Amino acid sequence: MVNPNTQKGFTETPPNYDRKPELEAFDDTKTGVKGLVDAGLTRVPRIFIREIADGQTLSISNGSEIPVIDFDVERDLIIDQVREACESGGFFQVVNHGVPVELMGEMIDGVRRFNEDCDEERRRYYTRETTKKVVFNSNFDLFRSPAANWRDTIVCIMAPHALSPQELPVALRDVIVEYSKQVMKLGVMLFELLSEALGLKPNHLNEIGCSEGLAVLGHYYPACPEPELTMGNPKHSDNDFLTVLLQDNIGGLQVLRQNQWVDVPPVHGALVVNIGDLLQLISNDRFKSSEHRVLANRVGPRISVASFFTTHLQPSTRIFGPIEELLSEENPPLYRETTVKEFTRYYHTKGLDGTSALTHFKL
């Protein structure tokens, strides 16, 4: 077990420090960061400390640049707003989206219950096998990243093949099934809007499989005694087509825009939508997958639910490349073709190292 109170910070780390034994000791507890907090730590363990936090010296904006799009207005106006948001920064919030606000609150509560009610339940699902349909762990790239992040995650693969109730954690069982159904409906609608925003037929992105798969990730960020030393989630972009994020009211999500970190403030009843790397690839850079991060916080736990539209666990040979209808002599393809499985494998192997996976697929 890692002794959290013996870690004094990065500046005291000896040059021959081998962090692997401490990583293994932390992983072997199978209770994640929450387990460390429950053990009464007063300092951040050395394995979580970053030499320089991502973008630490960059200025921070209050988030007024992140558009909030009302889906209860004329469709043409929604399409125009979605197009502008996706071409300029890839992040926007939506209201009147059809997912019941009460259900959103119940989903947050379900993630809280899973993390707080029973250590044995968490240990039961704790694994580093990425092929399992339900996975709980702390940091999917724990042994590859420069520093561990102050975050535990439960991942449930909800589509294209539905899980039986018995496969799901009791604390989440009922709510995640209903929440996933509602998010899938929203996803189909979002991909229709995105298709039209690209000048394609409304059903184009749905027909090529962008909305087939859904992975629901419940993130739990415990209160941190020294948040300036670590991150909840470092700078990264998402390895999917589209992400729909439900966040609680604590805040901490930031997106990188024009060399400035911009807050994505919690808005009551809103869901955050952001473009993933795969949609940037098939749109040939028309839509942008922006880098973002989550700060650690003395207040907590912060809870969020990220719904990833991706089919990386589906054994499919479907090829994705820049959409032919978007290409021309003046706009040649910028990326080579790939499968979702190949892209995801590269992303996971690379880990959250601060670089974009898209670079690997550039022509």
TrEMBL record:
<dbReference type="GO" id="GO:0046872">
    <property type="term" value="F:metal ion binding"/>
</dbReference>
<dbReference type="InterPro" id="IPR026992">
    <property type="entry name" value="DIOX_N"/>
</dbReference>
<feature type="compositionally biased region" description="Polar residues">
    <location>
        <begin position="1"/>
        <end position="14"/>
    </location>
</feature>
<dbReference type="InterPro" id="IPR027443">
    <property type="entry name" value="IPNS-like_sf"/>
</dbReference>
<keyword id="KW-0560">Oxidoreductase</keyword>
<feature type="domain" description="Fe2OG dioxygenase">
    <location>
        <begin position="212"/>
        <end position="311"/>
    </location>
</feature>
<keyword id="KW-0479">Metal-binding</keyword>
<comment type="similarity">
    <text>Belongs to the iron/ascorbate-dependent oxidoreductase family.</text>
</comment>
<dbReference type="Pfam" id="PF14226">
    <property type="entry name" value="DIOX_N"/>
</dbReference>
<dbReference type="InterPro" id="IPR005123">
    <property type="entry name" value="Oxoglu/Fe-dep_dioxygenase_dom"/>
</dbReference>
<dbReference type="GO" id="GO:0051213">
    <property type="term" value="F:dioxygenase activity"/>
</dbReference>
<keyword id="KW-0408">Iron</keyword>
<dbReference type="Pfam" id="PF03171">
    <property type="entry name" value="2OG-FeII_Oxy"/>
</dbReference>
<dbReference type="InterPro" id="IPR044861">
    <property type="entry name" value="IPNS-like_FE2OG_OXY"/>
</dbReference>
<protein>
    <recommendedName>
        <fullName>Fe2OG dioxygenase domain-containing protein</fullName>
    </recommendedName>
</protein>
<feature type="region of interest" description="Disordered">
    <location>
        <begin position="1"/>
        <end position="25"/>
    </location>
</feature>
